[in-house]
Amino acid sequence: MAFSVIHFLKPLPTNNYMNQTIRISKAEFIDLEEILALQKKAYLSEAAIYDDYSIPPLHQTLPSIQKEYEDAYVLKAVTLDNQIVGSVRLTIHDGYAIIWKLIVDDRFQNLGIARKLLTEIEAIGKQKVSRLELFTGFRSEKNIHIYTSTGYKEFKREQLTDKVTLVYLEKFV
Description:
8-stranded mixed sheet
C-alpha cells in the first residue's frame, strides 16, 4: 500500500532520559520485527492495568504483523540514532478508518510523541474517509484522555475478556 513519507523533526522537551529529535515516517517491512518487540513491551503496562496477560497484542507473531502491513498504513517514530520509539497503524474500511496499536516506548512517554503519531495517522485517514475510529481498554485513562482531548467521542463498549472491556471512540473529519 503506497503513501507519502511524513517527516517530523523537532527537539523534544528534556526529560530524565534524554533530549531527542524524533522523526515520524512510514514504517518499512524491515521495521516490523522492531515494532512488534516495542508493541509487546508497551502492552505489558496495559496488561498490568487489567491483570490480564492474554491480551492479543502481547501474543501477536511476526508473520501476523507482516500480513497486517499489507493492508495497513504503519507509521513509526524514530530517534536520530534510528531507534524506533513509537508506532501506529490505520486500516481503511467501508466508509471509515480504524486507528490502532498506538504505542510509545515508556522511556519516551509524556513528550508528545503519541499525539504526533495520532495527528499524522489521522491526516492519512482524513484523505480517505470522513470517520475515524479507535479503541482502548476502559481502565486505560491516559489513552482515553489523549483520545478525548483530540476530539474523539465514545460510541460503544465491548467486553473483550472477563477483565477487559474495550471503549470505542470516533471522530468525524
